[in-house]
């Protein structure tokens, strides 16, 4: 997909012609290494949705994955523009309904887009959304502290913040993150009103569930827009067992659209 | 009755599988070696889960490998945080 800053790679999972339901699902990815870790789970969800007739599109935002640009040069607003452009291109494609699945920071980006305009989206699933950018930035800093601890070095968030102010960027999990990006993330949050919107459904994960039947009953209560999926925290680890429960839950939510 | 220890084992089993290892664990067995997911991101997600499930808060100074080395050290850390 051509953008002002170069081409963005978009991966498509298309249904067989006889399965087409004329609905699309756009995936908005998480941040950095969380995106890499999520690819296996996202791909399993996308394949299943394609088997259900949905056309699924996964974008690599500017400076990530197979898209052009460097991660360190990525600006928050560029990423929002990428998502908006993907969406606008979609509106030209005659889908009856366009849906979104936004994971982790992807959900925060979607909320950022909604600050300026409400896009005509049919249904949004927010998967383990980051509600407060400040909390996520703290987790990123802690990841750096843990990485340094593995090397036998100690530091605090204050030390890292000072480095960030001085150098203008910080390396975390192999990603060079600019101060501008981190500051933007810190300043963002998802407001309660958005989470209460009737076309927005939040899915949080729980690695272990004692009574899956009870959980499914709770999930199926009408108007319940805060659901739980039995799933490992797939965005934090490269190896995990694919959650069939999450796959079926996303399918059910989009099929009920 | 659910003890802090069983709750911790349940949390680790849920996050990383390895139920057999954790239920029969030698308290000095090295967690970081047994659970490859316990890298820097894994430790942060474990800290986040511990904070939520045990209603505790970690400081930057708590993020040292010695605390996550084995179930005994991790349990001591959680106990310490619970008592403050």
Describe this structure in words.
The complex is a heterodimer of chains A (257) and B (84). Helices cover 43% and strands 19% of the residues of chain A. Chain A has nine helices and eleven strands. Chain A has helices at 32-51, 76-91, 105-116, 133-150, 157-167, 179-187, 192-195, 212-219, 244-255; strands spanning 2-3, 6-7, 10-13, 23-28, 55-59, 97-103, 124-127, 169-172, 175-178, 200-206, 226-230. The model of chain A has no long low-confidence stretch (mean pLDDT 92). Chain B has one domain (4-82): Orthogonal Bundle (Non-ribosomal Peptide Synthetase Peptidyl Carrier Protein, Chain A). Chain B has five helices and no strands. Chain B has helices at residues 4-16, 19-23, 31-34, 40-54, 71-82. In chain B, helix 1 (4-16) crosses helix 4. Chain B is globular. The mean pLDDT of chain B is 84. The interface between A and B is medium-sized, with 29 and 23 residues.
Could you list some keywords that capture this structure?
heterodimer, A: alpha/beta, seven-stranded mixed beta sheet, globular, B: 84 residues, mainly alpha, Non-ribosomal Peptide Synthetase Peptidyl Carrier Protein, Chain A, 5 helices
What's the layout of helices and strands?
The complex is a heterodimer of chains A (257) and B (84).
Chain A: E1 2-3, E2 6-7, E3 10-13, E4 23-28, H1 32-51, E5 55-59, H2 76-91, E6 97-103, H3 105-116, E7 124-127, H4 133-150, H5 157-167, E8 169-172, E9 175-178, H6 179-187, H7 192-195, E10 200-206, H8 212-219, E11 226-230, H9 244-255
Parallel strand pairs in A: 4-5, 4-6, 6-7, 7-10, 10-11
Antiparallel strand pairs in A: 1-2, 3-5, 8-9
Helix pairs in contact in A: 1-9, 2-3, 4-6
Chain B: H1 4-16, H2 19-23, H3 31-34, H4 40-54, H5 71-82
Q: Largest beta sheet of chain A: what is the strand line-up?
A: 3-5-4-6-7-10-11
From the N-terminal CA to the C-terminal CA of chain A, the straight-line distance is 27 Å
- Overall average residue pLDDT of chain A: 92
Number of strands of chain A: 11
Overall geometric form of chain B: globular
**What is the chains' assembly state?**
heterodimer
At CATH level 2, the architecture of chain B is Orthogonal Bundle
In CATH, what is the homologous superfamily of chain B? ACP-like
- Helix and strand pattern of chain B: HHHHH
Question: With helices defined by DSSP (H or I, 4 residues minimum), what is the helix count of chain B?
Answer: 5
Percent of residues of chain B in beta strands?
under 5%
Low-confidence sequence ranges of chain B: none
The helical percent of chain B reads 55-70%
Radius of gyration of chain A (Å): 18 Å
Helix content of chain A: 40-55%
Unreliable runs of chain A: none
């Amino acid at each position: 997909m051509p953008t002002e800053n170069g081409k963005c790679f978009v991966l498509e999972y298309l249904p067989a012609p006889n399965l087409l339901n004329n609905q699309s699902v756009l995936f908005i990815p998480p941040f950095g290494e969380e995106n890499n870790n999520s690819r296996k789970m996202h791909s399993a969800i996308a394949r299943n949705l394609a088997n259900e007739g949905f056309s699924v599109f996964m974008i690599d935002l500017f400076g990530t994955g197979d898209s052009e640009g460097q991660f360190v040069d990525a600006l928050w607003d560029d990423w929002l523009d990428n998502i908006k452009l993907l969406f606008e291109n979609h509106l030209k494609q005659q889908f009856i309904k366009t849906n979104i699945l936004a994971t982790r920071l992807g959900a925060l980006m979607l909320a950022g887009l909604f600050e300026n305009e409400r896009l005509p989206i049919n249904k949004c699933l927010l998967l383990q959304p980051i509600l407060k950018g400040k909390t996520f930035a703290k987790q990123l800093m802690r990841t750096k502290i843990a990485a340094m601890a593995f090397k036998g070095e100690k530091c605090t968030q204050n030390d890292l913040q000072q480095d960030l102010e001085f150098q203008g960027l910080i390396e975390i999990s192999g990603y060079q993150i600019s101060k501008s990006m981190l500051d933007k993330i810190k300043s963002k949050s998802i407001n309660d009103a958005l989470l209460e919107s009737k076309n927005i459904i939040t899915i949080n994960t729980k690695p272990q569930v004692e009574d899956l039947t009870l959980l499914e009953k709770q999930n199926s209560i009408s108007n319940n827009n805060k659901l739980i999926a039995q799933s490992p925290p797939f965005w934090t680890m490269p190896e995990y067992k694919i959650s069939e429960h999450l796959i079926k839950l996303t399918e059910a939510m989009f099929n009920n659209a | 009755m659910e003890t802090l220890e069983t709750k911790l084992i349940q949390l680790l089993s849920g996050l990383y599988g390895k139920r057999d290892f954790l239920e029969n664990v030698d308290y000095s067995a090295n967690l970081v070696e047994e659970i490859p997911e316990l890298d820097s991101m894994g430790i942060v997600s474990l800290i986040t889960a511990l904070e939520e499930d045990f209603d505790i808060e970690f400081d930057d100074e708590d993020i040292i490998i010695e605390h996550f080395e084995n179930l005994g050290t991790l349990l001591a850390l959680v106990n310490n945080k619970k008592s403050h």
